[in-house]
Amino acid sequence: MEEEKVLYQATLCFPIDGERVLLAFKTKKIGKDRWNGYGGGIKKGETPRGAAVRELKEESGLDVLQADLTKMAVVDFHNTTAKGENFICQVHVFVTPRWTGVPTGDEAMITPTWFEINNLPFEEMMPADRFWLPPVLDGKKIRAEVHYGPFQKELRQEVKINEVDSLPETV
């Protein structure tokens, strides 16, 4: 039986090239078998920006400077596990127009692919992505709240999105 991953603080980073965004196909953990941005858990002593830089490098081979990341969202994912336990994972979402290197995959994130921002494969992405990701890729800063059932396969409530002027830098 598959074990559910529990994270409390995480990052996502989306490299953007004009009207295209880089996604990869996830093979493990949260988001398995779906297209996703690059990211993962924030380690003890690490800032969200530092974690985003590290995760992008580990999963895609791309190098990015913290100064080239723009924080676009904080999304609170309320998760209910198969055992009925609840936990919240707060995800700090960044975009970047600058990096060095050529995208490559790793064992967890394969087939890096550029998608047109106005034609994303939402049917093959996390269920809430269709609601909160378009405003982010359109340059809006948001706070969002998502409620997922076990293994993040279904939404339990309507996704709440609020446009904001600024976002906190730290956890």
TrEMBL record:
GO BP terms in the entry: DNA protection
One Pfam family hit: NUDIX
Keywords: Hydrolase, Magnesium, Metal-binding
EC top class named in words: hydrolase
Organism from which the protein derives: Candidatus Daviesbacteria bacterium RIFOXYD1_FULL_41_10
Cofactor: Mg(2+)
Protein name, per record: Oxidized purine nucleoside triphosphate hydrolase
Matching InterPro entries: 8ODP, NUDIX_hydrolase-like_dom_sf, NUDIX_hydrolase_CS, NUDIX_hydrolase_dom
Role played: Oxidized purine nucleoside triphosphate hydrolase which is a prominent sanitizer of the oxidized nucleotide pool. Catalyzes the hydrolysis of 2-oxo-dATP (2-hydroxy-dATP) into 2-oxo-dAMP. Also has a significant hydrolase activity toward 2-oxo-ATP, 8-oxo-dGTP and 8-oxo-dATP. Through the hydrolysis of oxidized purine nucleoside triphosphates, prevents their incorporation into DNA and the subsequent transversions A:T to C:G and G:C to T:A. Also catalyzes the hydrolysis of methylated purine nucleoside triphosphate preventing their integration into DNA.
Entry EC no(s): 3.6.1.56
UniProt keyword Signal, yes or no: no
